[in-house]
Design goal:
alpha/beta, seven-stranded mixed beta sheet, globular
Length: 277
């Protein structure tokens, strides 16, 4: 059982890398990729914990990227976390995230909600700072009832604290991953606010730019989605990946290992040269 997309508290997940490995084993996962957003801080800890319990750890990362006017996510699998090119890319992405966080906090300040930057940092526990931490801060302040409401009222697209940011293009991100010896996977293509025609255009561009695989299975999906994405991947010459996109234990639709198999027509990403723990 491969689960090639998960998050720890080093980015926007809830569990420590060690607890994530333990939960993955309990869920029947045999090989897990830790793919925190724009950081590999938890990989060494996860690797040690995985070795102790007989789990295979795939070192990974999830980079934010830009396609057209919107953001997309690209997962890197089997990366060398010590790669100088990767480390430089991470520093650039973290600098961009810090600037965005400051802008979000300023927007919230203008809305009469002071202390958002410090509050979000506290919620992150010292991990990679992102919008979910601002959402958790807003919940803690009693401004909204839950994280979903925070995005609907303040942080989501077009809302008062929505800060648009120009992430690096897909070609650059794919290059970072390849320079680190990894494979580039376009994450959860059905989760972007795109028509099917535009989604197909995104996947085609990703393939043309040197991408390696498409995340055909991402957590619990409606019937037919995996088969449709498998056909697109095959047409574009992309391998297929699968993962839960796990963040927290109370989201069963993104539970570790809790997703359907890759369709038979797929060429699994783990069969590609270069895929290695």
């Amino acid at each position: 059982m491969y689960d090639l997309h998960s998050h720890s508290h080093c980015s926007d997940g809830i569990l420590s890398p060690e607890a994530l490995m333990s939960r993955a084993r309990d869920q029947g996962v045999s090989a897990l990729a830790l793919t925190d957003h724009d950081t590999v801080e938890g990989v060494s800890r996860a690797r040690a914990a995985a070795a102790d319990i007989g789990l295979t750890l795939i070192p990974g990362i999830e980079f934010s990227s830009q396609w057209g006017k919107g953001g997309v996510h690209i997962v890197g699998l089997g990366i060398d976390i010590e790669s100088p090119a990767l480390q430089a890319a991470i520093r650039a992405q973290q600098g961009a995230r810090a600037s965005r966080a400051e802008a979000i906090a300023e927007r919230l300040e203008q809305l009469g909600i002071p202390g958002a930057l410090a509050g979000a940092r506290s919620e992150s526990g010292g991990g990679q700072l992102g919008r979910p931490h601002f959402a958790q801060f807003l919940v803690a302040q009693g401004k909204v009832k839950d994280v979903g409401a925070a995005f609907k009222k303040y942080l989501g697209a077009g809302k008062p604290a929505d800060v648009k940011f120009q992430w690096p293009g897909m070609e650059q991100v794919i290059g970072w991953i390849h320079q680190a010896g990894g494979l580039a996977v376009l994450a959860h293509p059905k989760k972007y606010p795109l028509t099917r025609t535009k989604m197909c255009a995104l996947i085609s561009d990703f393939a043309d730019l040197g991408g390696d695989a498409l995340e055909v299975v991402s957590g619990q999906q409606p019937s037919g989605v995996a088969d449709d994405l498998a056909r697109i991947a095959e047409r574009e010459g992309l391998a297929a990946s699968c993962g839960s996109d796990f963040h927290r234990p109370d989201a069963p639709w993104q539970e570790l290992g809790n997703f359907g198999p890759l369709p038979e027509r797929c060429r699994p990403v783990w069969d590609l040269p270069g895929f290695a723990p």
